[in-house]
Amino acid sequence: MLRVVAALxxxxxxxxxxAAADKAKPDPEIGRCVKRVRGDQRTCVKAATDRCREALxxxxxxxxxxxxxxxxxCIAEQAKCRAQPQVDQEGCKLACGGDQKVDMQQxxxxxxxxxxxxxxxxxxxxxxxxxxxxxxxxxxxxMGRFDDCLTACNKATTASSP
Length: 162
Prior knowledge:
Layout: H1 2-14, H2 16-23, H3 28-63, H4 69-107, H5 113-160
Helix pairs in contact: 4-5
């Protein structure tokens, strides 16, 4: 009986699929495909966001009819207000990504590379969240000024209407 069990163990370990599955290398083609698909998704989300912002701006201007100059000025001021905090946030996130790449390369020499990689990813995520949190107050202030500007446009339109 012991010989049968030993033979089955040897047979199972000699099966090409069993050993190969444990030591299989990731398919670089699949990795490139996944990277491309993720990039496509980010591009799609950005394009949709841009389309929605343009529609909002067009529709807002339309709300004011012949008094469209005022909301157009509000939109321009908001874009100007948001520009620097957005640049700062993107720069911050790029720095987080650069740090993550360095950390991931260092994980290659760690005794537990998977644990190290998870820690590097968590660190990068927290870094990027901090970038967004740091930019949020300034961006929220821009939105508040934008809302105030539109309210002033509405009051001015109402005051100038016959």
